[in-house]
């Protein structure tokens, strides 16, 4: 049986230490904390150096470049907003943003809905679930450039796969990439096919967390398939859908590979995207200042979406 | 004990981090070596996948170093890659002597990304024998020189002689006007089996590049100097004629195939497969068709640009790192002259190529069309005939016709102007109802915006 000492039981509040003593304690505690975590700080410093060198420094340099003219030989010249003015004067600037927003919009309609629908169907399967999951995920494993080259053949207006199929069922062939009307849609289809595997798996995981009782209750209430989807599935996966939508917007606003490999921005600039124009400024025209100015604008735009994304995830957690 | 281990771990981690930092910040160390020897880095070394060209290059480096014991050549693989050029320059990795296409010097000079070599040229032999149009490409408005041309391949009409024969055309009488090209394309397309009469690029700025070649062939221009600046010069009758001819060939004649948005590799693939009658190309395309696309030298003929007014100059040369010292520039100039501009080595050099069955006889490397009329040019022509390994007669009309054509360089800010003109090509080749005037108006606005930036 333990004894309560008078000191332990003392109702008197602990005496305040003199300031000098407190500072000493704090310094001692700091020393002990540093000593205890020395190895951790060591590991952290390596990561910090790598991040500083390969992430933070390039980001800061990129921001500065947006306000400079550089030739990498003489000292950079500070030009203020001149790079932005040049960008705003480029007739392709607005075209690129319009095209990118069109791509993002189409990707939301097509690339957002299809993986969710596929996930719902896969979730309902009773047989060969694993096989179909693999089939849906397979395109993700193909390198993007291979995907683009493969689809270029699909879209070939002459002997291409799609027009052969269309002709086979008596429909007129389409120009696909060769027409300003269908070029962007064609690129969205490629991007959706190539990336829907990952989104489908995430939706599948979300669907798996919905308690079965909810569906049972809905069925008892006489809900049909559509009503179960509308009143159970979608509300239960709403958060995942929202986060995926924001992530998709951030990703599709940066579309580059498909237009670069498949159309080069054509026909008639109908597939010039923000990143493709940025790439041209940097690596074709060697104008890194204007390219950086463009990347800054994209950064600000996407920063807004990222902030929204963070706010949503924090609220949820 | 645990403290010792902790400190040991810390030391290891910090050492690794420090090592990484030092590696990342490592500097190049290719400056002048010991004993007063000048060390220069040069690119243009062919890759190992081209064993013959690589061997020739390495042999030349060894022979040059033997003749010039005070110069050490450090060869590097690769040619001009605009995507990595600035990064290499910024990172101190750009070679002292670097390869350029003739499309590059104007911008590199404007951005001061190449060294001024004017004061070192007096000691370089045979420079006065180079064609002035080619030297002009490396010269700024003040007459300062920044590089030397080493090859020139003006554009012409490359055609499939076998398909010409099958279509009832005379392969020794290639078309000389655009109307004749249209007629020939119709006959070749009529052969069927997905055969395309005439193909044209329209993507990745290559459409604009070829639109420029069409304009020059009809006596037109792309840009003209107006006061201190530049303005576009293609939105006119000649420009409309080019666009309308292409549109008619695509839709009225249906001789250009359904698949569009082509680039050079697509067209070369069609030509190598024997499915294409004609396209606009420089002579260096012929070995590419044979070596990379399974073509046969006997199948190909070269004719001068139809239209007969002018042709677009293309080619290659070398420039110098803006940070290179005068010693390195002098050593680099000795290398360029010895390796690429050396009439004294012509005979032995061509014999090496001929002994290995390599293509000789084209107006391209190793017998580039860079010399003015005179002793050097005559010597090259006679040696070319002596060692010819390809059917020289198939290219004779191109060579003869070239003397009649005005050779014109690319417009300033060429890539941006080409991006604007790509749309004209794409419009007429992909849209049956394309409005030629609207396409040219749009392209003019964009091209003028690009030309306004010429500094």
Automatic annotation (TrEMBL), chain A:
Gene3D superfamilies named among the record's database cross-references: MetI-like
Region (Disordered): 1-27
Domain ABC transmembrane type-1 residues, every copy: 97-309
Keywords per UniProt: Cell membrane, Membrane, Transmembrane, Transmembrane helix, Transport
Domain of life according to the entry: Bacteria
Coiled-coil zones: none
Protein's cellular compartments: Cell membrane
Low complexity bias spans: 1-22
Membrane topology listed for this record: Multi-pass membrane protein
Transmembrane segments: 38-59, 101-122, 134-154, 184-206, 239-257, 288-310
UniProt main location, coarse: membrane
Family classification: Belongs to the binding-protein-dependent transport system permease family.
Protein name, UniProt field: Sugar ABC transporter permease
Species per Swiss-Prot/TrEMBL record: Actinophytocola gossypii
UniProtKB/TrEMBL annotation, chain B:
Signal peptide: 1-24
Keyword Signal set for record: yes
Keywords, comma-separated and alphabetical: Signal
Protein name (Swiss-Prot/TrEMBL): Extracellular solute-binding protein
Lineage per the UniProt record: Bacteria, Bacillati, Actinomycetota, Actinomycetes, Pseudonocardiales
């Amino acid at each position: 049986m333990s004894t309560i000492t008078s000191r332990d039981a003392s109702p008197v509040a602990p005496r305040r230490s003199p300031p000098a003593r407190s500072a000493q304690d704090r310094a001692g505690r700091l020393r002990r904390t540093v000593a205890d975590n020395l190895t951790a700080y060591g590991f952290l410093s390596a990561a910090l150096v790598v991040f500083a060198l390969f992430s933070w420094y390039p980001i800061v340099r990129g921001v500065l470049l947006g306000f400079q003219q550089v030739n990498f030989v003489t000292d950079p010249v500070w030009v203020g907003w001149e790079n932005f003015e040049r960008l705003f004067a480029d007739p392709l600037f607005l075209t690129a943003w319009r095209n990118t927003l069109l791509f993002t919009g189409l990707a939301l309609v097509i690339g957002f809905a299809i993986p969710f629908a596929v996930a719902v169907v896969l979730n309902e399967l009773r047989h060969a679930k694993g096989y179909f999951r693999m089939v849906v995920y397979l395109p993700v494993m193909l390198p993007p450039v291979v995907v683009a080259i493969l689809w270029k053949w699909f879209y070939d207006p002459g002997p291409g796969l799609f027009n052969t199929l269309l002709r086979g069922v008596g429909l007129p062939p389409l120009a696909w990439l060769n027409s300003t009307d269908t070029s962007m849609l064609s690129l969205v289809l490629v991007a959706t096919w190539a990336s829907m595997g990952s989104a489908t798996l995430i939706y599948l995981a979300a669907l798996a967390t919905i308690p079965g009782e909810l569906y049972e209750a809905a069925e008892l209430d006489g809900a049909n398939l559509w009503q179960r989807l509308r009143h159970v599935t979608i509300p239960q996966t709403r958060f995942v859908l929202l986060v995926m939508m924001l992530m998709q917007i951030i990703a599709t606003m940066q579309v580059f590979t498909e237009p670069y490999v498949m159309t080069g921005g054509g026909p008639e600039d109908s597939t010039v995207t923000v990143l493709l124009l940025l790439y041209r400024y940097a690596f074709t025209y060697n104008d890194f200042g204007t390219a950086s100015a463009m990347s800054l604008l994209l950064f600000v735009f996407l920063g807004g979406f990222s902030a929204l994304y963070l706010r949503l995830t924090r609220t949820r957690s | 004990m645990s403290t010792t281990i902790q400190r040991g771990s810390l030391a290891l981690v910090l050492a690794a981090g420090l090592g990484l930092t030092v590696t990342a910040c490592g500097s190049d160390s290719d400056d002048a070596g010991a004993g007063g020897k000048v060390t220069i880095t040069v690119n243009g070394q062919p890759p190992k996948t081209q064993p013959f060209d690589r061997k020739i290059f390495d042999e030349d480096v060894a022979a040059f170093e033997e003749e010039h014991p005070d110069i050490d050549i450090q060869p590097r693989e690769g040619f001009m890659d605009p995507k990595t050029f600035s990064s290499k320059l910024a990172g101190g990795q750009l070679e002292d002597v670097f390869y350029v296409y003739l499309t590059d010097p104007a911008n590199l000079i404007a951005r001061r990304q190449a060294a001024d070599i004017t004061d070192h040229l007096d000691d370089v032999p045979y420079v006065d024998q180079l064609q002035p149009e080619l030297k002009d490409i490396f010269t700024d408005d003040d007459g300062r020189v920044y590089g030397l041309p080493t090859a020139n391949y003006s554009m012409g009409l490359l055609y499939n002689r076998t398909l010409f024969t099958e279509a009832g055309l005379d392969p020794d009488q290639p078309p000389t006007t655009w109307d004749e090209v249209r007629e020939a394309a119709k006959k070749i397309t009529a052969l069927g089996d997905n055969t395309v009469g005439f193909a044209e690029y329209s993507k990745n700025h290559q459409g604009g590049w070829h639109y420029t070649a069409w304009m020059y062939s009809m006596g037109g221009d792309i840009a003209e100097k107006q006061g201190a600046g530049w303005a576009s010069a293609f939105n006119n009758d000649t420009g409309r004629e080019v666009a309308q001819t292409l549109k008619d060939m695509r839709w009225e004649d249906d001789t250009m195939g359904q698949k569009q948005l082509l680039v050079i590799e697509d067209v070369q693939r069609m030509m190598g497969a024997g499915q294409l009658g004609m396209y606009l190309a420089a002579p260096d395309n012929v070995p590419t068709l044979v070596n990379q696309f399974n073509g046969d030298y006997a199948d190909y003929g070269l004719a001068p640009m139809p239209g007969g007014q002018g042709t677009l100059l293309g080619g290659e040369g070398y420039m110098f790192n803006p940070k290179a010292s005068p010693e390195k520039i002098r050593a680099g100039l000795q290398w360029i002259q010895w390796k690429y501009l050396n009439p004294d080595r012509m005979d032995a050099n061509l014999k090496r190529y001929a002994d290995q069955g390599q293509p000789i006889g084209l107006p391209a490397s190793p017998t580039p069309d860079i010399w003015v009329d005179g002793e050097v040019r005559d010597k090259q022509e006679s040696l070319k005939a002596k060692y010819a390994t390809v059917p020289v007669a198939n290219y004779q009309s191109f060579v003869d016709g070239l003397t009649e054509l005005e050779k014109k360089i690319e417009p300033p800010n060429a890539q941006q102007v080409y991006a604007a003109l790509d749309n004209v090509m794409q419009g007429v080749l992909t849209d049956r109802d394309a409005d030629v005037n609207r396409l040219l108006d749009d392209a003019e606005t964009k091209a003028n915006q690009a030309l306004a930036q010429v500094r």
